[in-house]
Amino acid sequence: MSLVFLFPGQGAQRPGMLHELPSHPAIQATLHEASEILNMDVLALDTQASLQTTDHVQLALCISGVAVARALQKEGVKPAYVAGHSAGAFAAAVISGAITLKDTLPLVRLRGEGMMTAYPEGYGMGVVTGLLRREVEVVVNQIHTEENPVYISNLNAPTQISIAGKLEAIDKVLATCLKNGARKAIRLNMNVPSHCKLLDPVSLKLKEAIGHIQMKEPLIPYAGNVRGRVLRTANDIGQDLATNIAHPVRWDEVSTLIYELGGRLFLEMPPGQVLSDLSREAFAEARTAALQMTSLESAVVLSERYSDGV
């Protein structure tokens, strides 16, 4: 049985998230390191006003995830796999050992800034719950046009499918899905059409930037967003980080694969508990815990029953 570290993406953030991190030397050291890398006090990132900008949100998420994961590692907790959803993939890559925090934070900033400027208004995301992917795809294909594009986005669970594109098209897809029997179909609080081809230009900038970074072979296997497979080389992880913004996140495939490989304890780094909730619903025999709701000490004790290392 194996232990898995999960790192949430955008949407999990909340004001005060960095100030509320547990008191631990590894966490304080990471906050200090991040402040030096970014040439700012990173504790300023988690204010209500600061979290209105995409780059600040993603930086705060990355720093939070890396800090708490490092604290767990310092306490002897050894994950067999790491996986991050969307922006959370960058924190997962750091903990895998494939890339340093010093190289990662500028990439995260570039990603967030690119997302903000790509589509200033009129675009976003929605989520449909209660229909299968193929059912949502039929609706998307009927409504999508070049003038009003809409695409399948994140595949979080068999019946939880995100869409991205122009708001007019998104609203039509959501309304049609509700008529077709969806339990819920709503817009997400996102003003960027993430994880579809509309963000190819951002992906190209990331690919160029990653090309100048000396990445290392991971010490911990990393589950990739784009292919839904466990990646074990620096090149594959770099490719995943560069391209995941322009492709659907195959989270259902990622978590299922890790479970099939023996993952039985899923620890979600703060903030939020969406990923641990998805794992709990999908795998009756697995144990899940969100560090937002569980103390470091309790997580360490829990991990001792499940972790078999890498």
TrEMBL record:
Residues 6-306 form the Malonyl-CoA:ACP transacylase (MAT) domain. Its EC number is 2.3.1.39. It comes from the Bacteria. The keyword DNA-binding does not apply. Keywords: Acyltransferase, Transferase. One of its GO terms (molecular function) is [acyl-carrier-protein] S-malonyltransferase activity. It is an enzyme of class 2 (transferase). Signal peptide: none annotated. InterPro entries: Ac_transferase_dom_sf (IPR001227), Acyl_transferase_dom (IPR014043), Acyl_Trfase/lysoPLipase (IPR016035), Mal-CoA-ACP_Trans/PKS_FabD (IPR050858), Malonyl_CoA-ACP_transAc (IPR024925), Malonyl_transacylase_ACP-bd (IPR016036). The keyword Cytoplasm does not apply. Coiled coil: none annotated. It catalyses: holo-[ACP] + malonyl-CoA = malonyl-[ACP] + CoA. Belongs to the fabD family. This is Malonyl CoA-acyl carrier protein transacylase.
